[in-house]
Amino acid sequence: MESHKRKDTIDWTEYFMAMAFLAAKRSKDPSTQVGACIVNEDKRVVGIGYNGFPTGCSDDEFPWSKTSDNPLETKYLYVCHAEVNAILNKNSTDVKNCTMYVALFPCNECAKIIIQSAIREVVYMSDKHAHKEHTIAAKRMFDAAGVRYTQYKPRHSRIVIDFTEIDWDSLNQVPATPKKPPNGTLDDAGVNVSELSLDDRH
Ligand SMILES: Nc1ccn([C@H]2C[C@H](O)[C@@H](COP(=O)(O)O)O2)c(=O)n1
Ligand SMILES: [Zn+2]
Where does the record place the CMP/dCMP-type deaminase domain (predicted)? Predict the structure, then answer.
């Protein structure tokens, strides 16, 4: 029996950023999946969201294209950004003084809503659009409004969620000739070891 506490746990920032990345796994956007996680001063998650079309606007009917001769046939006029969805999904009265963990630096439209909802800090992973006007404008507004933004530099490139680690024996009891699932693999024991990686950044 182990008598000392585990030391190799993930820290708070990894935990909340990983939640943002897990939420992104729900996005139907074929090119860019973004997740956001809002945390209050007591380190409680109060909102989580990912980019997608508004309720009632079908993922199958609205366009996912990035380019078209007709702007109405691109996703940009319809998609709700992860940051906005996380704020709208809040399970608290407000998100005042909260921190938002987000995979990509917020655009100017999200920055306005982040400021107006009184979020105090943004922790982001990628700043790949730093040179674009929407990012420059977002930073200008954050600076003016006193919203801090910090780039998160991960200690590990991957955090793996392994569903088998809690109860391998019961998972091991599978039919003699299991079917290979799409995007999955079978290990020597015939168990589906399809992997969900949390570092699929785009
Ligand atoms: N901070 C951000 C940046 C982007 N998004 C969403 C909006 C779109 O669904 C997609 C960007 O499309 P791309 O031009 O990269 O294919 O990501 C967001 O939710 N939050
Ligand atoms: Zn945005």
Answer: 11-149
